[in-house]
Design brief:
It contains 9 helices and no strands. The chain is mainly alpha-helical. The protein starts with a helix and ends with a helix. The longest helix is centred in the first third of the chain and has 34 residues. Helix 1 packs antiparallel against helix 2, helix 5 runs antiparallel to helix 6 and helix 5 runs parallel beside helix 7.
Length: about 200
């Protein structure tokens, strides 16, 4: 009996260790997204995060979410350098993974990310489609209503204003986002802190 209990305890300990180790690796990969400086950094983070979409034991949508974030930010970096083709490819991956995250867990953060990726796609294709802007604006309004101090929601609104040519309004919203980061707003149990680089780039 004692031997059976010892084996069971050892097995449970191993499982717990494997899960906590996996979670530690996941958090390190998320940290890579926040620390990334180059397209190659974002690619490396994406490779790691995309693996977690099949191995993360719980809240797997977060792996899809951060994989999408890494490609969105890579596309932003590519666009700043004038590389539209690389930006378009990264944007397509971002859209695919963000949609998977949203299908699994629809919340303010996935709504905002979906909106940011859609605005980015408009920038890449140089589109001013009023219907697309209206749809994205509705996402931004809902996110702002659900979480008024969410900095990424403010960034989404700022990006929409930029796309409409309202630079002054965009700048005010980027400042609002900056304040949001300082107050560390987050959704229940999920506290992403990426997005500061989008303010620094504007």
């Amino acid at each position: 009996m004692k031997k059976t209990l010892l084996i069971l305890f050892s097995a449970l300990s191993c499982c717990f260790y494997a899960q906590s180790y996996s979670e530690k690796e996941f958090q390190q990969a998320v940290g890579q997204v926040n620390a990334a400086k180059t397209e190659n950094d974002y690619d490396n983070a994406f490779k790691k995060l995309s693996m977690f979409t099949s191995t993360k034991p719980t809240d797997r949508w977060q792996a899809y979410y951060y994989a999408a974030v890494s490609m969105y930010l890579k596309a932003e970096s590519s666009l700043k350098k004038g590389s539209g083709q690389e930006g378009a490819e990264a944007n397509a991956f971002a859209s695919k993974y963000a949609n998977a995250a949203k299908a699994s867990q629809s919340n303010t953060e996935t709504d905002v990310l979906t909106g940011l990726i859609a605005v980015q796609k408009m920038q890449i294709s140089n589109s001013k489609d009023a219907q697309d802007l209206r749809m994205i604006s509705e996402l931004a309004s809902k996110a702002g209503s659900d979480m008024p101090n969410n900095p990424r929601a403010a960034i989404l609104k700022a990006k929409i204003q930029e796309q409409m040519g309202n630079k002054e309004n965009a700048e005010k919203l980027f400042q609002q986002a900056k304040s949001g980061f300082e107050s560390k707003s987050s959704s229940a149990g999920f506290a992403p802190n990426w997005g500061r680089q989008l303010i620094l780039n504007n």
